[in-house]
Write a structure and sequence with these properties.
Layout (H helix, E strand, L loop, with lengths): L1 H9 L4 E6 L7 E6 L4 E5 L38 E3 L2 E14 L5 E7 L8 E4 L3 E8 L7 E4 L23 E7 L4 E7 L3 H4 L5 E7 L10 E13 L2 E3 L11 E4 L10 E4 L3 E8 L5 E5 L4 E6 L2 E2 L7 E2 L1 E4 L4 E7 L4 E7 L16 E7 L1
Parallel strand pairs: 5-8, 7-12, 13-17, 16-25
Antiparallel strand pairs: 1-2, 2-3, 4-5, 5-6, 8-10, 9-11, 11-12, 13-14, 13-15, 17-23, 18-22, 18-24, 19-20, 19-21, 19-23, 24-25
Bound molecules: copper (II) ion.
Length: about 350
């Protein structure tokens, strides 16, 4: 995609700024000339103009005969079977119609039909085998974000492996290490495929449990979608492609899942930035400590006490707090536009932490 964007800008003489590309017409891009005039460039095969191929990431997220999701929650624990002493997980990458609110359903590309895909959770030192079947209309690969895998398992298309073609199956296998909060996601045309929904949590528990163990342990993945005129697009920081829906575990408020906590319980939230935008996550009512960054434990003396933490794309922060007061306490992004659904507040990156006696 980087190569393609360079081509778009480099081969159009006299035009110096790619200003805006309407996702509703991906074969046209609006360009502002050096004199300030506007020109419409239409893709023509065989010319150096941007082709519909080169604007691929601006195409709607689609597929043939896309089914409605049968699951309502993403990021649920994935079952495995044992083959000798190897934990074997099965994933199918496929398009699905995914409800992000009661009223808005997007076309998403998913692992096993949910956004996020299912959580893989194992213990440090486990050998894991992940069998990935590609039922997408495009090639794909998986990258194990932050996990110390062998190079051949790293999921980089045409570098560490051939892209997995539609209909093909690929087997990943590695020893899960080190312990921590990780993610897995597509690494094939990531700006499109990750934003389309091909992401999920991967938790590696330490062999010796950390004490005290949290009473509540929840992973929250932050992402975005662009949904316009009944079509879904991969949101990205690019003119015309900005999101109008913001999601926690694939849902926008008020359909984000409430976190239920008893007063006095220790709560661990694993905040994971998988979208393409930064999100300063703020919690009302109680400060928290940052106990791990990008999966790695923070020594107790270095644990910052905060009420807001900026979660950037690719980052994970494990935060912990003790719920000391009853009530409904809000967790939300403090870029306040991110708490809207299609520009209407409240929505987006908000959820309630419900503390009861
Ligand atoms: Cu935000």
């Amino acid at each position: 995609m980087i190569r393609i964007r360079r081509l778009m800008i480099a081969f159009i003489p006299g035009l110096f700024l790619l200003a805006a590309c309407s996702p509703s017409d991906p074969t046209k891009s609006t360009l502002i000339s050096s004199s300030g005039g506007i020109a419409n460039a239409t893709a023509t095969p065989g010319t150096m103009q941007p082709s519909s191929d080169s604007l691929h990431m601006m195409q709607p997220i689609s597929g043939e005969n896309v089914q409605n999701a049968t699951e309502t929650k993403g990021g649920q624990l994935l079952d495995f079977r044992m083959a000798d002493d190897i934990k074997v997980f099965e994933l199918t990458a496929k398009p699905i119609i995914w409800p992000i609110t009661a009223d808005v359903s997007v076309t998403a590309w998913t692992y096993n039909g949910t956004v996020p895909g299912p959580m893989i959770r194992v213990t440090e030192g486990d050998t894991v085998r992940i069998v990935l079947k590609n039922e997408l209309p495009e090639p794909t690969t998986i990258h194990w974000h932050g996990i110390a895998v062998p190079n051949a398992m790293d999921g980089i298309p045409d570098v560490t492996q051939k892209p997995i073609q539609p209909g093909e199956t690929f087997i990943y296998e590695f020893v899960a290490k080190p312990a921590g909060t990780y993610m897995y996601h597509s690494h094939f045309e990531g700006d499109f495929q990750v934003s389309a929904g091909l992401y999920a949590p991967f938790i590696i528990d330490p062999k010796e449990p950390v004490t005290p163990q949290p009473d509540v342990d929840i992973t929250l993945m932050f992402s975005e979608m662009l949904f316009e005129n009944g079509k879904t697009f991969a949101a990205m920081p690019m003119a015309g492609m900005e999101p109008n829906y913001f999601t926690i575990n694939g849902k926008a408020f008020p359909d984000t899942e409430m976190i239920n906590v008893k007063k006095g319980q220790l709560v661990r939230l694993r905040l994971a930035g998988i979208g393409q935008f930064v999100h300063p996550i703020h919690i009302h009512g109680v400060p928290f400590k940052i106990v791990a960054t990008d999966g790695h434990p923070v020594p107790e003396a270095a644990q910052l006490t905060k009420d807001t933490v900026l979660v950037s794309p690719g980052e994970r922060y494990d935060i912990e707090f003790i719920a000391t007061e009853t009530g409904q306490w809000m967790l939300h992004c403090h870029i306040l536009h991110h708490t809207t659904n299609d520009n209407v507040e409240p929505g987006g990156l908000m959820l309630m932490i419900n503390v009861t006696d």
